[in-house]
């Protein structure tokens, strides 16, 4: 599960040939950024992804195979905003790769290009895994993907100037296709507006903001702490006065807390892919959001 997984080459790239002679090596911390590099670079870059859609990106081991990949890469593309604070600094240090150190062109932080939600006024370890930089789960709003695509394409051009024209052209092509897709998702998802939801982890504020979902409770008593029976009982009681229509969790979450609540409330559980590869339908960035919207719509009463 923890192995490096080469991202499947997107269909639109297939005709361009294999990435065996790619000029640039990229390492993505999460599948969504691996998929985005693939969209922008096609056969010009080879992409390895450090995690799968079924792994918790907060908690990854900097295994020897991953360190080896980091040692030889030209570029790392990670979420940042402290999502990988538990493993990325170790990985970068152990790689001994000067090109990917923080602040270097070979180190790209996606969240730096997005306006973060839930930036805390104060930091207290007692509040759980609260991130000083705000909520790092930016990939659940497709508009954030757009904000990351342009600077990422620029970074690819900077690191691989010989192929800059390709990166620019692919970024323009991706932007056009992505904007059209967002317009379609906006229309399809309109019935979801105002829907109250229970979430497992506070992983969806960007999705909520985009689609107008209203989070009324979280199953984790504090971010990063597994649901306890005491807290689940509180959530159940709270739903009497503030009812919800569905329970939403990411594919990588343990399902027991949501099943407990679903049994007692008869609410549907929506397991969202959360990233590319989170389920069989989410094969690339486009199908990730196709599937996300469809799963939410299917749970509407
Ligand atoms: Zn989180």
Computed over alpha carbons, the radius of gyration is 19 Å
Q: Give the helix tally.
A: 10
Name the bound molecules.
zinc ion
Pairing-aware structural class of the strands and helices? Answer: alpha/beta
Task: Report strand %.
Answer: 5-15%
Task: Give an overview in words.
With 301 residues, the chain is of the alpha/beta class. It is built from ten helices and nine strands. The chain has helices at residues 11-14, 31-41, 64-72, 88-95, 142-159, 164-188, 205-211, 229-241, 256-265, 285-299, and strands at residues 5-6, 24-28, 45-49, 75-78, 107-109, 196-199, 214-218, 246-250, 269-272. The strands form two sheets. A five-stranded mixed sheet has the order 1-3-2-4-5, sandwiched between helices. Strand 8 (246-250), helix 9 and strand 9 (269-272) form a beta-alpha-beta unit. The chain is globular and about 60 Å long. Residues 1-11 have low confidence and may be disordered. The protein binds zinc ion. Zinc ion (ZN) binds next to loops.
């Amino acid at each position: 599960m923890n192995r490096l997984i080469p991202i499947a080459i997107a269909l639109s790239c297939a005709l361009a040939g294999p990435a065996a002679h790619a000029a640039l090596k990229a390492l993505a911390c999460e599948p969504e950024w691996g998929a985005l590099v693939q969209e922008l670079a096609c056969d010009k870059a080879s992409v390895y992804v450090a995690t799968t859609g079924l792994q918790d990106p907060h908690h990854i081991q900097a295994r020897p195979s991953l360190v080896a990949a980091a040692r030889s890469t030209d570029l790392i593309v990670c979420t940042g905003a402290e999502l990988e604070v538990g493993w990325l600094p170790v990985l970068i240090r152990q790689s001994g790769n000067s090109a990917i150190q923080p602040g270097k062109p070979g180190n790209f932080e996606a969240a730096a290009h997005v306006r973060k939600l839930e930036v805390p006024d104060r930091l207290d370890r007692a509040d759980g895994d609260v991130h000083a930089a705000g909520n790092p789960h930016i990939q659940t709003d497709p508009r954030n993907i757009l904000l990351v695509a342009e600077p990422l394409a620029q970074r690819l051009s900077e690191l691989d100037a010989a192929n800059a024209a390709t990166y620019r052209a692919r970024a323009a092509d991706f932007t056009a296709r992505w904007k059209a897709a967002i317009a379609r998702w906006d229309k399809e998802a309109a019935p979801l507006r105002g829907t109250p939801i229970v979430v497992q982890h506070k992983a969806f504020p960007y999705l909520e903001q985009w689609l107008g979902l209203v989070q009324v409770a979280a199953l984790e008593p504090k971010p990063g702490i597994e649901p306890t029976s005491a807290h689940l009982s509180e959530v159940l009681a709270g739903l009497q006065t503030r009812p919800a229509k569905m329970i939403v969790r990411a594919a990588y979450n343990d399902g027991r807390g949501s099943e407990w609540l679903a049994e007692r409330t008869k609410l549907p559980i929506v397991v969202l892919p959360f990233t590319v590869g989170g389920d069989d339908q989410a094969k690339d960035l486009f199908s990730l959001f196709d599937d996300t919207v469809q799963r939410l719509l299917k749970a509407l009463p």
